[in-house]
Amino acid sequence: MDRQVDLVARIGAGAITPDVAQFGALTPAQAGRLIGDAGLACAALTHRAFGFADPTLIPAARERLERSIATASKIGAPCIVMTTGGRGTLDWRDAVARFAEAVAPCADLARQAGVTLGIEPTSHLYADASIVHRLTDCHTVARAAGIGVVNDLFACWVDADIDMALVAATALTSLVQVSDYVPGDRGLPCRAVPGDGAIRLERLLPAIIDAGYAGYFDLEIIGPRLLTEGVAHGLQRAAAHIGRILDTAGLTG
Question: For position 39, what pLDDT does the model report?
């Protein structure tokens, strides 16, 4: 985690979104000090999937999420990034109802701790980890569960109703994740540096701001393109490109 904190600080970002799996031997208090000493805020904490399809696994899923809520509170992360978990053999509506019921105690605990649980849309290739693949569906499930939305544009930029979905989801959106897609890439993860691909960020990001969102824009870039270029160089280019778009749209800081 030390290297990630150092890298994020060096590219001039204002905040970091660590994954709970990256803490290693660090306690939440130690991780929080590491982040703060680098001059960074914590935009969110990544938790990953919440398993609910098998009722026997729900107690363990709740316990794990409760630990992440406590960690987020201690490191000053206002949001937890997570996926719903897969639906198994359930049809979609039944899966939504079961997820909402299963996550409810954690949602209450998070609100008491001042933390927002945010589910993100994912590629359908991650159906084992999520029941939401369009932003509209993500918003529907979030409302049913009384939680927030993490808008991962890589997953939903091709949605037919993306313009309406961006506006509808804004009130529940706690984080926006930004990357790019180069046409022809087939194997996940295949995220590109913003500006290198086909996602119309120059249109989508201002639309999100115009809808009332004023939170963090998180660079979530993984895959061989970034590794080939060099993580530090690629993230610096990404930060500069997104910074220019946000400045033009009137969002500073």
Answer: 96
Using the predicted structure, report yes or no on whether residue 252 has a pLDDT greater than 80: no
- pTM of the entire structure? 0.95
Amino acid (one-letter) located at 139: H
Which pLDDT score is estimated for 253?
54
* Whole-number average pLDDT of the chain: 96
Q: What percent of the chain has pLDDT over 70?
A: 99
Q: Comparing C-alpha atoms, which of 91, 243, 116 is closest to residue 172?
A: 116
- CA 154/CA 41 separation, integer angstroms: 24
196 touches 221 (CB < 8 A):
no
Q: What average pLDDT does the segment 229-245 reach?
A: 96
Q: How far is CA 239 from CA 8, 13, 219, in A?
A: 10, 7, 8
The C-alpha angle with vertex 131 and arms to 97 and 145, in degrees rounded to 5, equals 40
Domains of the chain, start order:
2-178 (3.20.20.150)
Beta strands in 94-200 (DSSP E): 116-119, 148-152, 173-178
Residues near 47 by Cβ (< 8 Å), separated by ≥ 6?
20, 64, 65, 68, 80, 81, 82
Write the pLDDT tens digit of every residue in 101-127: 999 999 999 999 999 999 999 999 999
d(CA 197, CA 13): 22
For residue 85, what is the enclosing H or E element?
A: none
Secondary element (H or E) of residue 141 = helix 135-145
Burial grade of 187 (CB within 10 A; 0-12, 13-18, 19 or more): exposed
User: For tokens 């000493």, what's the residue?
Assistant: 37
